Amino acid sequence: MAEGAGDQWVAGGALAVSALAGAELLTAEDGGPHLWNDDDAGVLRSLTLALMVLDLAWYAVLLAAEVRWPRPRYDVRRWATALPMGMTAAAALSVADAADVPWLKGPGEVLLWVAVAAWLAVAAAAAARGGAALRSRAPR
After folding, report:
1. Which of 56-65, 68-77, 127-136 is predicted with the least confidence, judged by mean pLDDT?
2. Rounded Cα gap, residues 54 and 19, in angstroms
């Protein structure tokens, strides 16, 4: 956590994608032919919620590590931070609807704006780094 360049967030992204997939399966079950029986839907809901809780816990740990060991310099692996942050927000919003957990919408919306801010910060740092790389180093 102290030495990663941002790519340690990928595990949280995997949890978020898994929770999002569970939410999509729960939603698909409501709209058409049953993909599983009612007992399985309860298991799927529980598993989806467990994945979401694990993802939010991992997010909190990583956010605390970012505060404790800030990494102000740009590294291309910071994109591996921005994407999982966005995936966690999308998962929270989707799970809130699909699993009928309305209190999860508020944190999902907050996490969405945090992810947008992180994406903008990484994009700005990438642009600044790219602009510096394009400048001529020839003697003047």
Report:
1. 127-136
2. 9
Closest residue by Cα to residue 101 from 29, 37, 59, 46: 46
Assigned token pair, 119: 């994406």
Question: What are the structure tokens assigned to 47, written together?
Answer: 């598993």
Q: What is the DSSP secondary structure assignment for residue 103, as one 8-state letter?
A: G
Q: For 101-121, what is the mean pLDDT?
A: 95
pLDDT at 119 > cutoff 80: yes
Contacts of 103 (CB under 8 A, 6+ apart): 96
Which residues, other chains included, contact 95 with Cβ-Cβ below 8 Å and sequence gap of 6+? 19, 20, 22, 23, 48, 49, 52, 101, 104
Given a contact cutoff of 8 angstroms between Cβ atoms, the answer to whether 71 and 25 are in contact is no
Q: What does the pLDDT read at residue 134?
A: 47
